[in-house]
Amino acid sequence: MAEKERSRPPRKKKERIPRQPMPVRPPEERNQDFNEVALGFTEELALTEAKRCLQCPKHPCVDGCPVSVDITGFIHLVTEGDFIGAAQKIKETNLLPAVCGRVCPQEEQCEQVCVVGKIDEPVAIGRLERFVADYEREHGEAAIPEVAPKTGKRVAVVGSGPAGITVAYELLQAGHDVTIFEALHALGGVLVYGIPEFRLPKAIVKSEIDTLIKMGAEIKLNMLIGKTRTIDELMEEDGYDAVFIGTGAGTPMFLNLPGENLNGISSANEFLTRVNLMKAFREDYVTPIKVGKKVAVIGAGNVAMDAARSAKRVGGDDTDVFIIYRRARDQMPAREEEIHHAEEEGIIFNLLTNPVRFIGNENNYVKQVECIKMELGEPDDSGRRRPIPIEGSEHIVDVDTVIVALGTTPRKFIAETTPELETSKWGTFIVDEETGQTSKEGVFAGGDIVTGSATVIKAMGAGRVAAKAIDEYLSE
Amino acid sequence: MYKIVKKEVLAPNITRFSIEAPEVARSRKPGQFVVIRADETSERVPLTIVDSDPDQGTIDLIIQDAGFSTHCLSCYEEGEGFIDVLGPLGKPTHMENFGTVVCVGGGVGTAVLYPIAKGLKEAGNTVITINGARNKELLILEDELGEVSDELIITTDDGSYGIKGFGSTVLQDMLDEGRQIDFVVAIGPTLMMKAVAEVTRPYEIPTIASLNAIMIDGTGMCGGCRVTVGDEVKFACVDGPEFDAHLVDFEEQIAKHHYYDDEQACHMDKIVAEAEQEKS
After folding, report:
1. Do B216 and A287 count as a contact with CB atoms less than 8 A apart?
2. ipTM of the complex
3. Would an 8 Å CB–CB cutoff place A288 in contact with chain B?
4. How do beta strands A366-379 and A353-360 pair?
5. pLDDT at B265
6. How far is A280 from chain B (nearest CA, A)?
7. Which residues on A lie below 8 Å from B258 (Cβ)?
8. Angle A43-50/A71-79 helices, nearest 10 degrees?
9. pLDDT digit string, tens, across residues A194-225
10. Widest pairwise Cα distance in chain B
11. Cα Rg for chain A, rounded, in angstroms?
12. How close does chain A come to B223, measured CA to CA in Å?
């Protein structure tokens, strides 16, 4: 082997390094527990992968990143073996590299525009990001970023999900006092209640967020703004000079079909919150979780995959979990990686199938779902071919648990108590895209509360935009 | 930590706590609730706020030991505290001068009823309260309700105190007598609220019930508290907890209450086993 490699000309050898695969646990082992599925690169894999980067001066990957991570810069440090330096390079613009390395859809962002990807598979930027962040955390204290001299200005950040975390991080660095208001009992938003442990360990989320506390952020948990305090009270009575609203899209959508309130039917939000935030999968935690032997998950986004894979783990080997989705495989909104992992773990896909109604037993427990087969017609507004029911194809599927994963919409607590804030018909806040400025002076917003449910990194990108605008607003 | 400044046992298995929660005490209105998590491994439990003292920064809660989590909460002592108290949640009760109002409370539901009766009295209504319990020992808030009611009627299922029978029957009798009633509030066991709704339905008297739904966050995120109201699905945590009792699907609510019975029982068995182990 060594002999063969030596015989190649060195330049050619560099071009031919294949994209290094992510080591993962075997499906039949990992679907028994909630430990992480992907194991992460070894030092050797990271060094090999990093060499694939061409260090192109135009670095389109950086423009492809919503928070403009210096990707070529950090990968160059990896090639030199300076893993901690690489992690710190990422943290210049992104507090959450261990999180983003795990959950960002790199294939639609940095890796999609990678120059290497034009002739070969793109550089595994996400895997490298995850590696250096994990390396830094596992090799002693992560460095605390420098904080500018105090400006004396106070900012309230409402919601501690990806958008709020990013705003807090940037504004703390700029020397402002930041208070984070969170309604739940833990920081992180969707990172702690939504994304499962086997994809994103909560200890890692906590470790990255703890940096904010070390930088001086004040944390107020159990504060539902719009109920406990209003935006006006924060600004007029509590003396905040600016407010950032990053409250996300929290309300689960349902199908509005007959029988949907039967026992055994829940939203993916409820199911995942029980598992993730309340740790219902652990014996020592009290919150109950119920998974039957025939579980239908309705929807085919990332959240549906998370719910299906979690249900399989809670239910055990004799639990059948199947996705019910009205379109075809190519139209599933979940990341390819998540679909692939779900398939490997034994999740069944009933595609081109749409539920029509739920049927209960005498005790009001769901026992069946009636479905109809679909076929694809002409493209609709989303550009995807419209699913059309096939007449006479109604059929009954036995189920005892149904998880509805159709997406989420914003909650209304703040809009209802802050009439000056303009909202769209979907309940999202209307903002200036360049700044995140809302219709109320000093109030900015970003993330899912503006866009409707999207991705972690898009919310972080919006947070960065708003943080810059808030800093400018406070300097006026 | 939200400190327990006062604990009082009102009746067997019914405990009243005053808890330091200044932010909640300041903004809370009658009809609203909090979600409590006792410690790290506990579940989140929704509980209606019975009363509050904004100056002292305290809220009062009444907890009936009726399952694993309420049992655990009831065991906390003065000076200890709960790690999380979130609120005030839900919509406040709509208060106006309806005229004559009948407030029907059953069991620990009386705890939820009290602040509403008080608010309705302050809004200028003539308040008739029917306070019911299984027996005399389990009757709570008799004095407090007496103070805010123009008329207080006590019922017990076994006749050990007051009128023997149910609140819904007393209400029916009042209507049969031809008394003018403009508004009815029913809070207690789901079957009792359903019975009251059936009594007032033929008379078309506006009637509200306060639902005690299963929920996790209490902020509209889980949808576990879904309730069918007429032809709409509502979330008890953000749209409620009070709804038009003539439109609520109570049977659906009763079924939902039993969904986690096995899991609760399993945890209870564990405590009993641990207690027995300690004894031996």
Report:
1. yes
2. 0.92
3. yes
4. antiparallel
5. 80
6. 9
7. 263, 363
8. 120
9. 999 999 999 999 999 999 999 999 999 999 99
10. 62
11. 23
12. 6
Per the listing, tokens 């699905």 go with B233
Q: Do A286 and B43 touch (CB under 8 A)?
A: yes
**Could you tell me which residues of chain B have a Cβ less than 8 Å from any Cβ in chain A?**
23-24, 27, 37, 41-44, 68-69, 72, 83-89, 216-217, 219-224, 226-228, 233, 235, 238, 249, 251-252, 255-256, 258-260, 263-264, 267
Do A463 and A162 contact (CB within 8 A), yes or no? yes
Q: How far is CA A48 from CA A71, A76, A350, in A?
A: 16, 12, 40
User: Which site among A270, A401, A402 would you substitute to test the B interface, given the most B Cβ atoms closer than 10 Å to its Cβ?
Assistant: A270
Look-up of token digits 């895209």: A433
Q: Which two tokens stand for residue A356?
A: 């029509």
Q: What are the backbone angles phi and psi of residue A458, rounded to the nearest 5°? A: -65, -40
- Cα–Cα distances (Å) from A451 to A99, A102, A225, B137, B214, in that order, read 21, 22, 20, 56, 30
Integer angstrom CA distances of residue A343 from A220, A347, A402, A464, B118? 41, 5, 19, 36, 58
Residue A133 token pair: 């962040």
Q: Nearest-CA residue of chain A relative to B37? A: A185
Distance CA A409, CA A221 (A): 22
B90: left (phi over 0), alpha (psi -120 to 50) or beta: left
Positive or negative, the Cα torsion across A340, A346, A347, A351? positive
- Radius of gyration over every alpha carbon of chain B, rounded to an integer in angstroms: 18
- AA letter at A214: K
Phi/psi at A21 (5° precision): -75, 150
Token digits of residue B228: 């069918």
Q: Do B252 and A364 touch (CB under 8 A)?
A: yes
pTM of the model: 0.93
Beta-bridge partners for B165: none
Cis amide linkage into residue B88, ω under 30° from 0: yes
Contact A304, A322 (CB under 8 A): no
Strand duo B207-210 + B126-133: pairing = unpaired
Average pLDDT over chain A, rounded to an integer: 93
**A254 to B223: CB separation less than 8 angstroms, yes or no:** yes
Q: What is the pLDDT of residues A418-453, one digit of tens each?
A: 999 999 999 999 999 999 999 999 999 999 999 998
| CA-wise closest residue to A184 among B224, B91, B218 | B218
Percent of chain B with pLDDT over 70: 99
What gap in Å lies between CA B34 and CA B20, rounded to an integer? 13
- In the sheet that holds A443-445, the strands lie side by side as A218-220, A177-181, A154-158, A242-245, A443-445
| Nearest-angstrom CA–CA distance, A175 and A191 | 26
